[in-house]
Design goal:
Layout (H helix, E strand, L loop, with lengths): L6 H17 L17 E2 L5 E2 L17 E7 L8 H8 L2 H4 L2 E7 L2 H10 L4 E4 L1 H9 L4 E6 L6 E6 L14 E4 L4 H12 L9 E4 L5 H7 L4 E5 L3 H7 L4 E5 L10 E5 H6 L1 H20 L1 H11 L7 H15 L13 H13 L9 H4 L3 H5 L1
Parallel strand pairs: 3-4, 3-5, 8-9, 8-10
Antiparallel strand pairs: 1-2, 5-12, 6-12, 7-10, 7-11
Helix pairs in contact: 1-4, 2-10, 2-11, 5-13, 10-11, 11-12
């Protein structure tokens, strides 16, 4: 049986999600103008119908009319965002008639800013989208970037941990009891009939759990497949990695937008998706292009090109499906349903939602 978090933990998630939208008008808000708040028109299938007129329409001559998009990425410039950088530098967005501006924000801020229309697009995974939509935050998930859920549990091979069952009685470092890593850890433990009470949770609000593993302060920690374990391995330390995808699929990070923005800028978003997936294909064929594009944005990344290449290679693997279908961008409705069901058991879906309330597949099909 899957354990339930405390009422305090569940309440914190709900309050935080509502607070993101209410409080995001402060200093961290984007400076771009909010998108038009035109009502969204659902189609018969439950997806979002494009607006008939908008700034992203196609001109009579067949070329796209210029449109601007503000896109929120992670909290710092990183090689993990190489497709966006490459699509910008290679002129793929320009070819779609787009002027794209990137901003770096943490995930909670992205959900809030996208929901209120202060930025047009952002990156977020299903474990953030589901409770947000359940709490009436008007966002939808549009395109999958990570086909594999990147949040993992890792540690030194010398710990003797090889499977999720081996976590029993161990010390596990996490940033806090919230977010995708916390949900992933509960799913991983539940898969072998363990609860969070069966392990010792050590919180690292400063995200220092990776260093804690290296120093031996904890036996394992949550992290991202293309970050902490890469650094641990490069130090010469044999490492284990436990993937939640091995036990239950959770939707990885992808592009999100508000329902109002989808209605107002449907064609522009479609162009952005096409250009980004094109850049992902380029990087899969030649990862050096992605590293070069990232260094052009953040020159300090060039100080250890080998590390950036290793991170990008791990990122590329996470873009691909574990089942062998490597079609980029597609939305796996089965994974979304399983994630929705699981999060409901955790009490994180206070108001019922369906998959059609969460995702819009028009953009992927069009691509």
């Amino acid at each position: 049986m899957i354990s339930r978090p405390s009422i305090r933990a569940r309440s914190a998630v709900v309050i935080a999600l509502v607070g993101f939208v209410v409080g995001a008008c402060g200093p961290s808000s984007a400076t771009s103008s909010p998108s038009a708040s035109a009502p969204i028109a659902p189609s018969v299938s439950g997806s979002v119908a494009p607006s008939s007129v908008g700034p992203s329409s196609v001109a009579p001559g067949g070329s796209p009319v210029a449109a601007s998009l503000t896109v929120g990425l992670g909290y710092i410039a990183s090689v993990q965002f190489a497709p966006f950088y490459l699509a910008q530098q290679a002129g793929y967005y320009k070819a779609e008639g787009l002027t794209v501006t990137f901003q770096n924000k943490i995930d909670p801020d992205l959900v809030a800013l996208v929901g209120q229309g202060s930025i047009d697009l952002g990156l977020s995974d299903g474990t953030s989208v589901i409770p947000a939509v359940s709490n009436a935050i008007p966002i939808r998930y549009l395109t999958t970037i990570y086909r594999q859920f990147p949040s993992i549990v890792f540690g030194k091979a010398s710990s003797g941990i090889k499977t999720a069952a081996d976590l029993k009685g161990k010390k596990i470092g996490i940033p806090g009891k919230y977010g995708s890593s916390w949900i992933m850890l509960q799913a991983l433990l539940a898969s072998v009939n363990l609860k969070t009470d069966d392990v010792t949770i050590v919180e690292y609000p400063d995200f220092g759990q990776g260093a804690a593993v290296a120093q031996g302060a904890v036996d394992a920690a949550t992290g991202f497949v293309n970050n902490e374990p890469i650094q641990l391995q490069r130090s010469g330390t044999p490492t284990f990695i436990l993937h939640v995808d091995d036990v239950t699929p959770l939707p990885g990070p992808g592009l999100i937008a508000s329902t109002a923005t989808i209605a107002a800028k449907h064609d522009a978003i479609g162009g952005f998706v096409r250009a980004t997936l094109r850049a992902m294909d380029d990087i899969i064929a030649d990862p050096a292009k992605g590293v070069d594009a990232s260094i052009a944005v953040e020159p300090t990344l060039g100080q250890d090109r080998a590390l950036q290449t290793a991170i990008l290679n791990a990122t590329i693997e996470a873009w691909k499906a574990s089942g062998g279908n490597d079609t980029l961008g597609v939305i796996d409705r089965t994974s979304w349903q399983k994630s929705l069901d699981f999060m409901t058991t955790l009490g994180l879906v206070p108001n019922p939602v369906t998959i059609d309330d969460l995702v819009v597949e028009d953009f992927v099909k069009a691509s």
